[in-house]
Amino acid sequence: MGVRILFLGPLRDIAGEPEREVPAPLDWAGLLAAVGPDIADQLREPRVHVACGSRVLGDKTRLDAREGDEVALLPPVSGG
Question: 51 is in which domain, residue-wise?
Answer without folding.
Answer: 3-74
